[in-house]
Amino acid sequence: QEVSPDIIIKLNFSPHALRLCKKLHNRGIRPAVTLIFTTAQAVAAISAGADYLFPFLGRSDEYGLDGLQLLDNIQRIISRNGYPVSVVAASVKNIHQLEAAAVSGASYAAIPYSLYLKSLEHPLTARGARDFARDWTAANHKDS
Q1: Among 32, 5, 34, 8, CA closest to 21
Q2: Is 10 a residue of the active site?
Q3: Does the pTM of the predicted model rise above 0.90?
Q4: Edge-to-edge strand order for the sheet containing 86-89?
């Protein structure tokens, strides 16, 4: 049966999921492997044919690991070997992690909407917008 190329099957990391990942990949179905907490897990998922990896940054940090270092290690392995896989930074908890994920080369980030909105804010941007509005108003009142 034909599966749309728009369909991505998300699998929780496990030995069973790796076998399923390989089968899906061999049938032309794009698998994503989530719950990645180590570089070895990422390499195993890549070897199994994953099209997407979901390393968990924030949850790694909660367990005393360095989620950003994990992401950086995964990105370096992918880049050095030219693997055709995209990384989705997952369990992103704050703006620092979001920006570091972007700098590391993560293709995507799975974030809560509230973090997205927060990432668009900065006090200097708000102050600059107020200054521009004030200057515009002042310039337009001079001509009146």
Answers
A1: 32
A2: yes
A3: no
A4: 8-12, 30-36, 52-55, 86-89, 108-109
| DSSP, residue by residue, 100-112 | HHHHHT-SEE---
Of the listed 10, 22, 93, 118, which one is catalytic? 10
pLDDT digits (tens, 9 = 90+) for 69-127: 999 999 999 999 999 999 999 999 999 999 999 999 999 999 999 999 999 998 898 89
What does the block give as tokens for 84? 């055709």
DSSP assigned state of 27: T
Instruction: Reduce the DSSP state of residue 10 to 3 states and report it.
Output: strand
Cα–Cα distance measured from residue 115 to residue 99, given in angstroms and rounded to the nearest whole number: 11
Q: Helix 95-104 and helix 67-81: axis angle, to 10°?
A: 10
Rounded Cα distance between 59 and 113, Å, is 18
Summarize pLDDT for 13-41 with one digit per residue, the tens: 999 999 999 999 999 999 999 999 999 99
